[in-house]
């Protein structure tokens, strides 16, 4: 249901895998986008690798007793059916409305996602069966964990449609980058411009850090004034 998943170019994945989410928020801010960091998306396991992929969206609404039942797990519109539609390399982004007392996925669902090659799970909600989820080695960013099942507080209603996750509007096939600082959204239409600007920003900040380590004071260095920019450009031209 909803939008068809699209692949993401391998060169884009490689480029963004070397870019921090902190850098991406700066680049997106310069393009006028302030609300791109998904609140509540914390790494479930310390040291998880940075993950890059197109968003495969899932949406929950508040629980309604006639719909949010254990029987609903076998319905055509269910989290189980959604997982079977996830393509390899996608990032599952789940709108759980910030509910933290009902786990959206547990170990079995996460194990199936890992088996299908899903790159990671991002949600503003929580997971359950946390020990088992960790054993699947699926990278997960969430707001914690809770024992009760999703139907205790949520009703699943669909996938691959626009959602809100952590206060951010996420559309199917937008690009998501996730690391220790959480999940950042790149609108699909801005991808090429953001990648080019982010690669340059990382290179500039790496050079600035070397200047800081050499004892150069911050005023005029960060952000760079015209003189500093000229020194950087001279260094960058030699480094190419």
Largest sheet: 9 strands, mixed
- Helix tally equals 7
Q: Do you know the CATH topology of the largest domain? A: Glucose Oxidase, domain 1
How many domain units? 2
What would you note in describing this structure?
It is a single chain. α4 (107-115) links the parallel β4 and β5. The mean pLDDT is 96. The protein is an alpha/beta fold and 240 residues long. The protein is built from seven helices and eleven strands. The chain has helices at 10-16, 21-30, 79-84, 107-115, 130-136, 191-213, 226-239, and strands at residues 37-38, 42-43, 51-62, 91-95, 120-123, 140-142, 154-159, 163-165, 168-170, 175-179, 182-186. 39% of the residues are buried. It has two domains: 10-189, Ribonuclease E inhibitor RraA/RraA-like (Glucose Oxidase, domain 1), CATH 3.50.30; 193-239, no CATH class. The longest helix is centred in the C-terminal third of the chain and has 23 residues, at 191-213. Strands 1, 2, 3, 4, 5, 6, 7, 10 and 11 form a nine-stranded mixed sheet that branches.
């Amino acid at each position: 249901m909803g939008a068809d998943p699209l692949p993401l170019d391998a060169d884009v994945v490689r480029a963004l895998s070397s870019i921090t989410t902190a850098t991406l928020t700066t680049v997106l801010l310069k393009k006028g986008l302030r609300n791109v960091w998904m609140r509540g998306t914390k790494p479930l396991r310390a040291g998880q690798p940075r993950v890059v992929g197109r968003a495969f969206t899932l949406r929950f609404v508040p629980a309604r007793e006639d719909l949010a039942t254990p029987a609903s797990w076998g319905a055509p519109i269910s989290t189980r059916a959604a997982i079977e539609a996830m393509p390899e390399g996608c990032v599952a982004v789940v709108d759980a409305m910030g509910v933290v007392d009902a786990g959206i996925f547990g170990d079995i669902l996460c194990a199936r996602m890992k088996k299908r090659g899903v790159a990671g799970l991002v949600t503003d909600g929580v997971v359950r069966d946390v020990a088992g989820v960790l054993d699947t080695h699926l990278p997960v960013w969430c707001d914690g964990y809770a024992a009760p099942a999703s139907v205790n507080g949520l009703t699943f209603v669909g996938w691959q449609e626009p959602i809100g996750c952590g206060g951010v509007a996420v559309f199917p096939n937008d690009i998501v980058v996730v690391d220790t600082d959480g999940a950042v959204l790149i609108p699909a239409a801005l991808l090429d411009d953001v990648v080019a600007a982010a690669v340059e920003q990382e290179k500039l900040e790496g050079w600035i850090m070397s200047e800081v380590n050499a004892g150069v004071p911050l005023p005029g260095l960060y952000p760079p004034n015209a003189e500093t920019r000229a020194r950087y450009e001279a260094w960058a031209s030699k480094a190419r």
